[in-house]
Write a structure and sequence with these properties.
By secondary structure, the chain is an alpha+beta fold. It has 5 helices and 4 strands.
């Protein structure tokens, strides 16, 4: 009967160091069994790494430069950025040259802008025609100042009002007393 590493009182480091010697003493069947076991574990590790790691890498969204509450989203693209308008869904390609950002409109977006400009031109022309056809402001009175008679009437009213107020104050105060 052969002595094993445990029987000889060897530590784990000694056992690991003696592995090549143990492999030499193993039979061919044992050696094939351990080789197949190692390959099976290696294959399983590769399959797990590919099945769980690759989709995570492939499904990672591109970095987006914009908070959620902003109108536009910028996504890095070759030589610049792709700008997405979150309200209309329109895409534009933006490039940075000499520190200046310039965005080119897509064909669909340009056509939509040109149609909107034409609609606004027609609306502007219709409003100008309507303003020209509308009557002018009403004619103002040439002399807005009150007449001499109206002025005297207002002055008389004010004078009577003040006399009544003064009489009420005199009646309410006792003789020789203050207010």
């Amino acid at each position: 009967m052969r002595a094993t590493a445990i029987d000889a009182g060897m530590t784990n480091a000694h056992v690991r160091a003696s592995f090549p010697l143990r492999a030499a003493t193993m039979g061919r069947a044992q050696h094939l069994f351990f080789a197949h076991l190692f390959l099976a574990h290696l294959f399983l590790a590769i399959v797990l790494a590919v099945s769980f790691g690759a989709p995570a890498i492939a499904e990672a969204p591109p970095p987006v430069i914009a908070p959620d509450n902003e109108r536009f989203t910028l996504t890095p693209a070759e030589g610049g950025y792709v700008r997405l308008n979150k309200e209309t869904g329109a895409l534009s390609y933006c490039s940075v040259k000499d520190g200046v950002t310039a965005c080119r409109l897509g064909a669909e977006e340009r056509a939509a802008f040109e149609a909107e400009i034409e609609r606004l031109r027609k609306e502007n022309a219709a409003l100008k025609a309507r303003a020209e056809a509308a009557p002018g402001p009403p004619a103002a009175r040439p002399n807005m100042a009150p007449s001499e008679e109206e002025f005297e009437r207002a002055l008389s009213f004010t004078e009577r009002f003040l006399r009544r107020i003064m009489r009420l104050f005199r009646e309410e105060t006792s003789p020789g007393g203050a207010l």
